[in-house]
Structures are given as C-alpha cells and as structure tokens.
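A quick aside before the break. I want you to see a complete sequence-to-structure record at least once, exactly as it would be stored in a machine-readable document. Don't worry about memorizing anything.
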Amino acid sequence: MPKIERIFYKNEISLPDSFFSIPAEIYCGLEFCPEETKREVLHLFQLKNKDHDIIIYTNHHNIRLVGIFPKNGNIAYFGYWETKDNLSLNSRAFELLEADSKKFGKSSINGPMHFNTFHRYRLRLGEMPSWKMFDREPVNPKYYPGLLENLGYTISLSYESRRIPAREIRKIYRDKQRFVKEIQDLPFKIIPLNPENWQNHQEEIFELVQAIFNQNPGYKDISLAEFKLLYNQQFAEKLCPYTASLFEDTISKKLVALTFCHPNYKSLEGEINGAPSFKKDYPKLKNPTMLAKSSGVHPDYRKMNLMNFSGAYAMLSFRELYEDTIFCLMKTDNYSRHFTDGIECEKAYYALYEKQIKIS
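That is the input. The structure line, written in tokens, reads:
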C-alpha cells in the first residue's frame, strides 16, 4: 500500500493533483458529490495560511486528509477528508494528524471542518434522503461516520434538515397566520434579496452575518474577501427575491435580520450553463423545492419575533412558487428548529465530531 505523505502547505506551492482526483474516484457511481472547485480551495488555503499551519496527509490514491492548526487556541481541525472504506489506511493518516496536533500544543481535534463553520463542515449520517443532495449540503459515503467512531471520535454537535411536503404546508400557514397578517404593520422595512439589493447592501450584509453567527460553536470571524468567496453576486443571482429578505430598522437604517432562500436547482444539473440564476432557471423547475438556507436576527433585536415575521414574509409567496421546502442544516437544539415542530416531515441528520488528545 502506498506510503502516506505529509505535505506542509506553503503559499508558493500548489496542492498535488491527487487532491482533486481522489474525490472523483470516491464519489464515482454515487448520486451526490461535494461541491468543490479548485479555484475556491486554492483561494481559501492562501487566505488561511496567514494564521494557520496546514498539513495534507495523502497517499495520492485513495485518501486525503488536511490537518488545520490555528496559530491561536488549543483546538486542531481536520477537513477535506475523502477516503476509501479502509480502517487501517485511515488509522495511519489520523495518527499523523494526532501527532502533529500534539506538536502544535492542541488538546482536541474537531471535524470535519474546512477551517470554520462558515465553510463546508459536518458529516451526513444514515441513509440518503429522497432529495439526494441540495445546494452545498454536506454529503459523504455512508461508511464515513463508522470510520471516525472506530478511530475514537465522538459526536460533539448534531444537526438536521427537514423536508416539508406540500400537503403539510397548509399547517404552517394555519399555525403562523397571525404573523402573516401582522407583517404589513411592522416598524421595519422589508428588502427583497434580489441581485441589485445584494450589491447595494453587500458590506452591511457581511457585518450582519458576523453579528448574528459569531457566537455559534466553531464559527470564527472572517474577512470580507473570505465572505465573498461564497456570498457574492453569483450567490445573489440564485436567491429567490420573493422569499429571501433583509429587515431594516426604519429609524436607525441598520439591517437587523436576514433570510437566505433559493430553489433547489439540483434537478437541472446538466441543463444550466454556468451558475444557477433564479430569473433564468426557476421557470425550468418542474416541482420546485424552496431551500431555507440561513436566517438570523441581530442580537440587539432578538425576542421581537423577527424570525417568525421573516418566515411569514416568505409564506406570502410560497404557495404560488413552491411544492415543498427543506429547512436546511439546523442545529438540533437551535430555537429556529421549532418553527417546523409538529409538522410531518422527512429528516436528514448530520454531525460534527471531536476527539480529546493527551499532550505529553
């Protein structure tokens, strides 16, 4: 079996070609594949190399693993993990990761996480759901969780996605009708998230994202350049302007809440030239599913029912546009998860793992 090489990443060298060929082999024949572009990976590694040590462990054939060691703190991370179902192979790779973690003075390892929770992280657990994969959903072969558990890793945080079928949508309307009626009288301006409004408010959106999510486990503040790797004009083009929104305080003119929603474009793969666009590609969808991707309220404006009101805004147009919806990647104990409690739904589960290590 080929030896596992330990490659210390430096800006002046690129990643080996095998870094990108290994996933292609792992996911060949499966009905899903992680969304990963070489440009995005290289750009992110270059950005993060400033305040992280980065080590790639690979035999260039059937395993890749990245050790991520922040300059500060006592937690190491592993990410970009793709592998064949081979416990011995993974034992050797993770032993190298754990040895380096000790050298860097880290007392625990978390993952899979691509630097922080702003980027791809978590494993999907159990059987493949009916939707197979939605946009930027963490996906992996079903043997991944078992490999990690055999290596001594345990679940630290759990998450779920919920698909609400069309027949159940009316129950959400019934239960939330008060918010739908009151939406017109709020002391907030509702800004539809279309490409023009995104461009006009991009830096404010970035600041609002930081304020909303910076207390989440695993989240770290990011630069505007890193934000724009994922959340940019291309992202704005695929948002649904009828259900995605910003809420602006009419007095302070500050953005105070956001909701990112867009259709699930996966059924159109092969038909879309370039990146998806709501204007261009929504009309092609036969049974449109809305992805409720992210929502949140500025800490200074919580306990004002703004989560419910942003959901109510989306409901005003939902029935005319979508057959069903997937509430994506909610933390199991997150308050927003209760928005769909009591509704019959299909669920998919995910987890983040950790392992404590002894520093000698």
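Two observations worth writing down. The chain is about 30% helix and 25% strand. The first strand starts at residue 5 and ends at 8. We'll return to this after the break.
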